[in-house]
Amino acid sequence: MAFKEKTMIKSKKRFSVSLMAALTLLVAGAAGFAQRHFMLSNVARPEVKMQLSAAVERESGAVPLSKDTVVSSGDMLDWSITSENDGNGAAVEYKAVAHIPRGTTFVADSAKADGAKAFYSIDSGKSYSRQPMIEEKQADGSSKRVPAPVSIYTDVRYEWADPLAPGGKLSASYKVRVK
Fold it and tell me: Is this structure's pTM higher than 0.85?
């Protein structure tokens, strides 16, 4: 065999080995990608569904609020929020926000939720505080920070310290009075 032929055979073998190595890496990489993709698609994720309902407190009892329900000035509305985790992972640092409808005033100390703390907003949900404060002008012209009246509350946010487990359910409520 001539030198040129031996070199060509070695080149073909190297090319074949290189091609096999490249194909092996490609297949192994694709298998690894597929495995990671499969693992990511099986990551535990929460899927929380919220339901908001309300009832009007009447002398005869609570009447569920619907679009046909007539409310009058002074009526008390009892709002309930139910959150249920239908996912396969816990909802960590779960929060539920409730808007105080226009034409109503939040009823002081009515925000209730087992295991949650209530925070209030006076700026349509831009910021929250356990006790919102406002600047009040004093008789001498100075300003003083004082607790905001509940009449200017715009939102209530409930924050749970414990995660909402898969299949778990949380409830919160608050009351408003129709102006």
Answer: no
